[in-house]
Protein backbone atom coordinates (compact mmCIF):
# COMPACT_ATOMS: atom_id res chain seq x y z
CA UNK A 1 0.00 0.00 0.00
CA UNK A 2 2.82 2.45 0.85
CA UNK A 3 4.13 2.28 -2.71
CA UNK A 4 0.77 3.65 -3.89
CA UNK A 5 0.83 6.65 -1.55
CA UNK A 6 1.60 10.08 -2.98
CA UNK A 7 2.26 13.32 -1.12
CA UNK A 8 2.30 16.80 -2.69
CA UNK A 9 3.89 19.77 -0.90
CA UNK A 10 2.98 23.17 -2.37
CA UNK A 11 5.51 25.89 -1.52
CA UNK A 12 5.97 29.52 -2.48
CA UNK A 13 9.73 29.65 -3.10
CA UNK A 14 12.76 27.39 -3.44
CA UNK A 15 14.02 26.76 0.14
CA UNK A 16 10.50 26.56 1.67
CA UNK A 17 10.45 22.81 1.02
CA UNK A 18 13.56 22.49 3.19
CA UNK A 19 12.54 24.84 6.02
CA UNK A 20 9.01 23.45 6.42
CA UNK A 21 8.26 19.73 6.52
CA UNK A 22 11.59 18.47 5.18
CA UNK A 23 12.19 15.92 7.93
CA UNK A 24 8.75 14.38 7.53
CA UNK A 25 9.39 14.38 3.79
CA UNK A 26 12.55 12.38 4.48
CA UNK A 27 10.62 9.92 6.59
CA UNK A 28 7.93 9.39 3.95
CA UNK A 29 10.46 8.99 1.14
CA UNK A 30 12.23 6.35 3.26
CA UNK A 31 8.91 4.55 3.69
CA UNK A 32 8.39 4.41 -0.08
CA UNK A 33 5.91 7.27 -0.45
CA UNK A 34 6.16 9.17 -3.76
CA UNK A 35 6.71 12.82 -2.77
CA UNK A 36 6.36 15.79 -5.12
CA UNK A 37 7.21 19.42 -4.38
CA UNK A 38 5.38 22.11 -6.35
CA UNK A 39 7.29 25.41 -6.23
CA UNK A 40 5.11 28.38 -7.14
CA UNK A 41 7.86 30.89 -7.99
CA UNK A 42 11.56 30.94 -8.78
CA UNK A 43 12.45 33.10 -5.79
CA UNK A 44 13.83 35.72 -8.18
CA UNK A 45 13.17 38.65 -5.83
CA UNK A 46 14.31 36.97 -2.65
CA UNK A 47 16.96 38.73 -0.57
CA UNK A 48 20.38 37.11 -0.23
CA UNK A 49 20.32 36.15 3.45
CA UNK A 50 23.73 34.50 3.69
CA UNK A 51 26.43 37.21 3.96
CA UNK A 52 28.96 34.91 2.31
CA UNK A 53 26.81 34.81 -0.82
CA UNK A 54 25.96 38.52 -0.93
CA UNK A 55 28.12 39.26 -3.96
CA UNK A 56 27.44 41.07 -7.26
CA UNK A 57 28.03 37.90 -9.31
CA UNK A 58 25.44 36.00 -7.25
CA UNK A 59 22.86 38.79 -7.46
CA UNK A 60 23.35 39.02 -11.23
CA UNK A 61 22.56 35.30 -11.63
CA UNK A 62 20.10 34.82 -8.77
CA UNK A 63 17.42 33.07 -10.84
CA UNK A 64 19.80 30.43 -12.19
CA UNK A 65 21.53 29.99 -8.83
CA UNK A 66 18.28 29.46 -6.93
CA UNK A 67 17.24 26.84 -9.48
CA UNK A 68 20.53 25.03 -8.98
CA UNK A 69 20.05 25.20 -5.21
CA UNK A 70 16.60 23.67 -5.63
CA UNK A 71 18.05 20.87 -7.77
CA UNK A 72 20.52 20.02 -5.01
CA UNK A 73 17.89 20.11 -2.26
CA UNK A 74 15.59 17.93 -4.36
CA UNK A 75 18.30 15.31 -4.72
CA UNK A 76 19.04 15.38 -0.98
CA UNK A 77 15.38 14.95 -0.07
CA UNK A 78 14.75 12.30 -2.72
CA UNK A 79 11.65 14.01 -4.10
CA UNK A 80 10.29 15.02 -7.45
CA UNK A 81 9.80 18.72 -8.07
CA UNK A 82 7.87 20.92 -10.50
CA UNK A 83 7.99 24.69 -11.03
CA UNK A 84 4.53 26.22 -11.41
CA UNK A 85 6.13 29.04 -13.38
CA UNK A 86 5.07 32.19 -11.53
CA UNK A 87 7.34 35.17 -10.74
CA UNK A 88 8.35 36.00 -7.17
CA UNK A 89 6.50 39.01 -5.75
CA UNK A 90 9.22 40.11 -3.35
CA UNK A 91 8.45 41.18 0.21
CA UNK A 92 7.02 44.72 0.12
CA UNK A 93 8.10 46.99 2.94
CA UNK A 94 7.21 50.55 3.89
CA UNK A 95 4.25 52.61 5.10
CA UNK A 96 2.25 52.66 3.00
CA UNK A 97 3.29 49.43 1.33
CA UNK A 98 4.40 49.81 -2.28
CA UNK A 99 2.31 48.15 -4.98
CA UNK A 100 3.19 44.63 -6.01
CA UNK A 101 5.33 44.28 -9.14
CA UNK A 102 3.25 43.93 -12.28
CA UNK A 103 2.61 40.32 -13.28
CA UNK A 104 4.03 38.81 -10.09
CA UNK A 105 2.51 35.74 -8.45
CA UNK A 106 0.62 37.55 -5.68
CA UNK A 107 -0.94 40.01 -8.15
CA UNK A 108 -2.70 37.30 -10.17
CA UNK A 109 -6.30 36.16 -9.93
CA UNK A 110 -6.51 33.06 -7.75
CA UNK A 111 -8.34 31.07 -10.42
CA UNK A 112 -5.61 31.82 -12.96
CA UNK A 113 -2.71 31.17 -10.60
CA UNK A 114 -4.28 27.86 -9.47
CA UNK A 115 -4.50 26.42 -12.99
CA UNK A 116 -1.02 24.83 -13.22
CA UNK A 117 -1.49 23.34 -9.76
CA UNK A 118 -4.82 21.80 -10.77
CA UNK A 119 -3.06 20.29 -13.79
CA UNK A 120 -0.27 18.91 -11.60
CA UNK A 121 -2.69 17.42 -9.06
CA UNK A 122 -4.61 15.66 -11.83
CA UNK A 123 -1.37 14.30 -13.26
CA UNK A 124 0.38 13.30 -10.00
CA UNK A 125 -2.81 12.20 -8.15
CA UNK A 126 -1.70 12.76 -4.54
CA UNK A 127 -3.86 11.52 -1.70
CA UNK A 128 -2.36 14.18 0.61
CA UNK A 129 -1.53 17.84 -0.11
CA UNK A 130 0.24 20.29 2.23
CA UNK A 131 0.64 24.06 2.17
CA UNK A 132 0.50 27.07 4.56
CA UNK A 133 -2.44 28.39 6.56
CA UNK A 134 -4.43 31.48 5.62
CA UNK A 135 -1.70 33.73 7.08
CA UNK A 136 0.93 32.12 4.87
CA UNK A 137 2.91 30.97 7.91
CA UNK A 138 4.17 34.56 7.83
CA UNK A 139 2.67 37.45 5.86
CA UNK A 140 4.72 37.22 2.68
CA UNK A 141 2.31 37.87 -0.22
CA UNK A 142 3.57 34.78 -2.08
CA UNK A 143 2.94 32.57 0.95
CA UNK A 144 -0.60 33.90 1.32
CA UNK A 145 -1.21 33.38 -2.40
CA UNK A 146 0.27 29.88 -2.16
CA UNK A 147 -2.34 29.07 0.49
CA UNK A 148 -5.12 30.50 -1.64
CA UNK A 149 -4.26 28.62 -4.83
CA UNK A 150 -3.71 25.34 -2.97
CA UNK A 151 -7.11 25.50 -1.31
CA UNK A 152 -8.69 26.44 -4.66
CA UNK A 153 -6.87 23.65 -6.52
CA UNK A 154 -7.71 21.07 -3.84
CA UNK A 155 -11.40 21.86 -4.35
CA UNK A 156 -11.26 22.22 -8.14
CA UNK A 157 -9.09 19.26 -9.11
CA UNK A 158 -11.90 16.76 -8.62
CA UNK A 159 -14.59 18.92 -10.22
CA UNK A 160 -15.28 17.88 -13.84
CA UNK A 161 -16.71 21.32 -14.55
CA UNK A 162 -13.57 23.13 -13.39
CA UNK A 163 -10.63 23.51 -15.77
CA UNK A 164 -11.94 20.78 -18.13
CA UNK A 165 -8.94 21.31 -20.44
CA UNK A 166 -6.42 20.39 -17.70
CA UNK A 167 -6.84 16.62 -17.50
CA UNK A 168 -9.02 13.98 -15.93
CA UNK A 169 -10.57 15.14 -12.62
CA UNK A 170 -8.93 13.76 -9.49
CA UNK A 171 -9.83 14.57 -5.88
CA UNK A 172 -7.10 14.54 -3.21
CA UNK A 173 -8.32 13.23 0.14
CA UNK A 174 -6.52 15.30 2.78
CA UNK A 175 -5.19 18.86 2.96
CA UNK A 176 -2.78 19.96 5.69
CA UNK A 177 -1.27 23.26 6.78
CA UNK A 178 2.28 23.41 8.10
CA UNK A 179 2.64 24.70 11.66
CA UNK A 180 6.42 24.86 11.86
CA UNK A 181 7.26 28.03 13.77
CA UNK A 182 4.69 27.99 16.57
CA UNK A 183 5.34 29.27 20.09
CA UNK A 184 5.06 25.92 21.89
CA UNK A 185 7.90 24.49 19.81
CA UNK A 186 10.06 27.60 20.14
CA UNK A 187 9.56 27.60 23.92
CA UNK A 188 10.54 23.93 24.19
CA UNK A 189 13.73 24.54 22.22
CA UNK A 190 14.49 27.66 24.26
CA UNK A 191 14.01 25.80 27.56
CA UNK A 192 16.15 22.90 26.37
CA UNK A 193 18.99 25.28 25.51
CA UNK A 194 18.71 27.09 28.85
CA UNK A 195 18.71 23.78 30.75
CA UNK A 196 22.04 22.93 29.12
CA UNK A 197 23.54 26.34 29.85
CA UNK A 198 23.49 27.28 26.16
CA UNK A 199 22.44 30.60 24.65
CA UNK A 200 19.00 30.36 23.08
CA UNK A 201 18.40 32.08 19.72
CA UNK A 202 14.75 32.51 20.67
CA UNK A 203 15.07 34.53 23.91
CA UNK A 204 14.26 37.94 22.42
CA UNK A 205 11.44 36.63 20.26
CA UNK A 206 9.74 34.85 23.15
CA UNK A 207 9.78 37.98 25.35
CA UNK A 208 7.01 39.59 23.30
CA UNK A 209 5.33 36.42 22.00
CA UNK A 210 2.27 35.88 24.14
CA UNK A 211 0.82 32.36 24.45
CA UNK A 212 -1.95 31.68 21.93
CA UNK A 213 -3.81 28.55 23.06
CA UNK A 214 -6.31 28.78 20.21
CA UNK A 215 -3.54 28.69 17.61
CA UNK A 216 -1.83 25.76 19.34
CA UNK A 217 -5.15 23.89 19.27
CA UNK A 218 -5.08 24.03 15.48
CA UNK A 219 -2.32 21.43 15.41
CA UNK A 220 -3.94 18.05 14.78
CA UNK A 221 -1.02 15.97 13.54
CA UNK A 222 2.52 15.52 14.86
CA UNK A 223 4.79 13.45 12.64
CA UNK A 224 7.74 11.80 14.43
CA UNK A 225 10.78 12.49 12.25
CA UNK A 226 13.72 13.41 14.52
CA UNK A 227 16.03 10.94 12.81
CA UNK A 228 15.60 12.97 9.60
CA UNK A 229 16.49 16.37 11.11
CA UNK A 230 20.04 15.94 9.81
CA UNK A 231 18.66 15.38 6.30
CA UNK A 232 16.54 18.52 6.69
CA UNK A 233 19.64 20.49 7.66
CA UNK A 234 21.53 19.25 4.60
CA UNK A 235 18.65 20.29 2.36
CA UNK A 236 18.56 23.70 4.03
CA UNK A 237 22.27 24.21 3.47
CA UNK A 238 21.78 23.50 -0.23
CA UNK A 239 19.99 26.87 -0.40
CA UNK A 240 23.22 28.77 0.19
CA UNK A 241 21.82 32.17 -0.85
CA UNK A 242 19.12 31.89 1.80
CA UNK A 243 20.68 29.94 4.68
CA UNK A 244 23.70 31.12 6.68
CA UNK A 245 25.41 28.03 8.13
CA UNK A 246 26.59 30.20 11.03
CA UNK A 247 23.16 31.77 11.60
CA UNK A 248 20.11 31.17 13.75
CA UNK A 249 18.90 28.15 11.72
CA UNK A 250 21.64 26.04 13.29
CA UNK A 251 22.01 27.73 16.70
CA UNK A 252 20.22 24.80 18.40
CA UNK A 253 22.42 21.67 18.23
CA UNK A 254 20.89 18.78 16.33
CA UNK A 255 20.72 16.45 19.33
CA UNK A 256 19.01 19.14 21.43
CA UNK A 257 16.41 19.66 18.73
CA UNK A 258 15.83 15.92 18.40
CA UNK A 259 15.24 15.51 22.12
CA UNK A 260 13.26 18.69 22.79
CA UNK A 261 10.87 18.60 19.82
CA UNK A 262 11.07 15.41 17.71
CA UNK A 263 8.05 16.10 15.48
CA UNK A 264 6.93 18.28 12.61
CA UNK A 265 3.46 19.62 13.16
CA UNK A 266 0.45 20.06 10.89
CA UNK A 267 -3.19 21.08 10.88
CA UNK A 268 -5.69 18.83 9.10
CA UNK A 269 -7.64 21.49 7.19
CA UNK A 270 -9.75 19.36 4.81
CA UNK A 271 -10.42 15.64 4.77
CA UNK A 272 -12.62 13.21 2.89
CA UNK A 273 -11.61 10.22 5.02
CA UNK A 274 -12.09 9.33 8.68
CA UNK A 275 -9.13 9.40 11.04
CA UNK A 276 -8.86 9.73 14.79
CA UNK A 277 -7.45 13.00 16.11
CA UNK A 278 -4.79 13.70 17.14
CA UNK A 279 -2.88 11.98 14.35
CA UNK A 280 0.77 10.93 14.05
CA UNK A 281 0.71 10.34 10.28
CA UNK A 282 -0.33 12.46 7.30
CA UNK A 283 -1.72 9.25 5.80
CA UNK A 284 -3.85 8.36 8.84
CA UNK A 285 -7.08 6.84 7.57
CA UNK A 286 -5.41 5.88 4.28
CA UNK A 287 -3.29 2.92 5.41
Your description of this structure?
- With 287 residues, this protein is an alpha/beta fold.
- The protein has helices spanning 16-19, 22-30, 56-60, 62-77, 110-113, 115-124, 141-156, 183-195, 203-207, 213-217, 229-238, 254-260, and strands at 6-11, 34-41, 80-86, 128-131, 174-178, 221-224, 263-271.
- The longest helix has 16 residues, at 62-77.
- The model has no long low-confidence stretch (mean pLDDT 96).
Strand and helix layout:
Elements: E1 6-11, H1 16-19, H2 22-30, E2 34-41, H3 56-60, H4 62-77, E3 80-86, H5 110-113, H6 115-124, E4 128-131, H7 141-156, E5 174-178, H8 183-195, H9 203-207, H10 213-217, E6 221-224, H11 229-238, H12 254-260, E7 263-271
Q: How far is the first residue's CA from the last residue's CA?
A: 7 Å
Mean pLDDT, nearest integer? 96
Low-pLDDT stretches are: none
Q: How many DSSP H or I helices?
A: 12
Please count the beta strands (DSSP E, at least 2 residues each). 7
Keywords:
single chain, 287 residues, alpha/beta, seven-stranded mixed β-sheet, 12 helices, 36% helix, 15% strand, globular
Short description:
The protein is an alpha/beta fold and about 290 residues long.
Amino acid sequence: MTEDLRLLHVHAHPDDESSKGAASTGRYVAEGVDVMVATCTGGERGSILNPKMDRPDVLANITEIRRREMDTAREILGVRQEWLGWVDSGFPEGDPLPPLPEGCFASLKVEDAAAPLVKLIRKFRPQVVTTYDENGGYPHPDHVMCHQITVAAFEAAGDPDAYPELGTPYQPLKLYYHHTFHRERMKALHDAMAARGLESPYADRLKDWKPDPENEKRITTRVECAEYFGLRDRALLAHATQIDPDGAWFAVPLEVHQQAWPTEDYELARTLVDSELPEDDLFAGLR
